[in-house]
Recover the amino acids of this structure.
């Protein structure tokens, strides 16, 4: 009987401790949300910049293939153009989805 009472008191103390710790959780979640949303503007601009660099590199590669008379030019142009469009659309959709 005495062991059951001690175990019950220990469990009650643990439950009380958990309920006390939950009060600061909301403030922490709000702070984390604000920190993450503050990163979206720089991250979106970074992805746009990466898309621009990929577009420039792709343009040069397509121009080189076109100048050399390679018959595979349209396939290369489509793949590089698709990569640029994907980067821009992905950044825009992620921004609108999370903000």
């Amino acid at each position: 009987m005495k062991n059951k009472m001690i175990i019950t008191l220990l469990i009650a103390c643990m439950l009380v401790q958990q309920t006390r710790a939950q009060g600061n959780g909301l403030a922490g979640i709000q702070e984390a949300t604000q920190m993450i949303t503050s990163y979206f503007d720089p991250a979106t601009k970074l992805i746009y910049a990466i898309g621009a660099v990929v577009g420039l590199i792709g343009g040069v590669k397509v121009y080189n293939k076109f100048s050399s008379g390679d018959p595979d030019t349209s396939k290369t142009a489509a793949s590089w153009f698709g990569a640029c469009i994907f980067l821009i659309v992905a950044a825009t959709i992620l921004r609108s989805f999370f903000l």
About this structure: The first helix runs from residue 2 to 21. The helical segments are 2-21, 25-38, 40-68, 73-98. The mean pLDDT is 81. The chain is about 90% helix and 0% strand.
